[in-house]
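INFO  loader      accepted 1 record
INFO  loader      residues=103
INFO  predictor   begin
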Amino acid sequence: MKRLGKVSHYAKQGFLILRTDWVPSLNEPVVDKKLTMVGVVKDVFGPVKRPYVAIKPRVKNPEEYVGALLYVDTKRKKVKPNHGKKRRAKGGKGRRPAPRKRG
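INFO  predictor   done
INFO  writer      dumping tokens
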């Protein structure tokens, strides 16, 4: 778990905005000090040294988190499922066959 920063405000677009000293990855889970899931990182913008982070909240009342410290929970990172990816046979080159000649 790594400290992200203190929430500065709740934007009209529905995001919690905070400022941080490091750049988190997109779609990383964000929790509060009680390890309650608050939302996910949706955007990182602003200066490189102290960027702003927009968090898409997954709680009923996100306005309650203004002024609260939030953290990135690296243990809750979701594993991406294989969407239609085929596994290659062992020892095979895994190439596509050459196209057939016409005419």
